Amino acid sequence: MGQDKLLDCSILLLAGGRGQRMGGQDKGLVEWHGKPLIAWSHRIARPMTDDLLVSCNRNQSAYAPFADRLVADDEADFPGPLAGIRSGLAAARHKWLIVLPCDAPLINKVLLNELYAMAQAEPGRPIMVRRGEQWEPLFCIIPVDLGATIEEAWLSGERSNRKILLALQARALNLRVDDTRLANLNSPELLALHEPRLGT
After folding, report:
1. pLDDT tens for residues 18-72?
2. Distance between CA atoms of residues 170 and 175, nearest Å
3. What's the burial of 169, exposed, middle or buried (CB within 10 Å: 0-12/13-18/19+)?
4. Where are the domains of the chain?
5. What DSSP string runs through the chain?
């Protein structure tokens, strides 16, 4: 069944990218079936935590209704999702941080519960989604106390969330290759191909 609220768990929605495949538009605010993309992931994440963070680098007033707090990169020129994850880890109030991209509107509560349950069984280790042989580093849960180690990797020049989490002995949450919950709708063409998921 899973839990309706995840104890000791903050959730970070990543919406701080450049939006190149959207022609430079702020991806989280692109409308899909009458709502901005961020609203769909917010709909699932909101009931599950009392510490919902959104990483954004522009249009903060538009994102504010979708978060308890906003975080932003500490470097200019969109340095990548790891910058937003660093900010989320620094701001998180709980023991765990679930990370989700804003352009995955088909996520559901079951997926978040799967990440959380696996993390409880492997305390101290990150959990990262994997589809077949492909890791999905922006669908993960990270122990917040690993923030300092991740910061060290960043300062040494590492910019890959996947590489850092694997170095921290991340376990895989293995999902089917065709699991539509992970669909990244990061272009107008992909948005047009999918319909909303009505259940949770």
Report:
1. 544 445 678 899 888 889 999 999 999 999 999 999 999 889 999 999 999 999 9
2. 15
3. exposed
4. 9-193
5. ---SS-TTEEEEEE--S--GGGTT--GGGSEETTEEHHHHHHHHHGGG-S-EEEE-SS-HHHHGGG-SEEE--SSSS---HHHHHHHHHHH--SSEEEEEETT-TT--HHHHHHHHHHHHHSTTS-EEEEETTEEEEEEEEEEGGGHHHHHHHHHTT---HHHHHHHTTPEEEEE-TT-GGG----SHHHHHH-------
| Rg of the chain over all Cα atoms, to the nearest angstrom | 15
Segment 140-162, tens digit of pLDDT: 999 999 999 999 999 999 999 99
Q: Rounded to two decimals, what is the model's pTM? A: 0.90
- Topology of domain 9-193 in CATH is Spore Coat Polysaccharide Biosynthesis Protein SpsA; Chain A (3.90.550)
List C-alpha distances in Å: 103 to 106, 144, 181, 183.
9, 23, 11, 8
